[in-house]
Amino acid sequence: MERPEYKTVDLEIAFDMIKKMMEVRLLQKGKGIYMSSHEIKGVICEEWDEYKEAVKTNNTGDQYDELVDIGVAVVFGIASMLSNKMDWL
After folding, report:
1. Domain residues for 47?
2. pLDDT < 50 regions, the chain
3. CA 51, 53, 56, 59 torsion: positive or negative?
4. Residue at 16 is within a domain
5. Amino acid 71: pLDDT
6. Do the domain assignments include residue 29?
7. pLDDT at 88
8. Is 11 inside any structural domain?
9. Cα(29)–Cα(51) distance, rounded to whole angstroms?
10. What pLDDT is recorded for position 72?
11. Looking at residue 25, what is its pLDDT?
12. What span, in angstroms and rounded, lies between the C-alpha atoms of 43 and 29?
């Protein structure tokens, strides 16, 4: 059985959700980068644990929220690495 393909609109919505939450996080926490790869891993793992809990409880709304948070953490992690200002990788 072949998997259905993503609709372009669904991908656009997903990217918009991540972008909007990035803006919220920047307002909440400022533009300070993650200072190490260990910090990046910690943030992503924390969000992953929260996603796993949402799956366990079958809470679809929380699953969306946590996937968005994982996406935000990944993008900020990449931006932190690109800054070349991290203390250590």
Report:
1. 35-89
2. none
3. negative
4. no
5. 98
6. no
7. 80
8. no
9. 21
10. 98
11. 98
12. 14
CA distance 66 to 59: 11
| CA dist., res. 15 & res. 7, Å (int) | 13
CB-based contacts of 71: which residues, under 8 Å, 6+ apart?
Answer: 14, 17, 18, 21
| Nearest alpha-carbon partner for 45 in 77, 2, 15, 85 | 77
- 8 A C-beta contact, residue 36 and residue 87: yes
**Predicted local distance difference test score (pLDDT) of residue 38:** 96
Total residue length of the chain: 89
User: How many domains does the chain divide into?
Assistant: 1
pLDDT at position 89, please? 66
C-alpha–C-alpha distance, residues 48 and 53, integer Å: 9
Tell me whether residue 79 is in a domain: yes
**pLDDT score of 73:** 98
User: From CA 31, how far away is CA 25, in angstroms rounded?
Assistant: 9
Per-residue confidence (pLDDT) for residue 69, from 0 to 100? 98
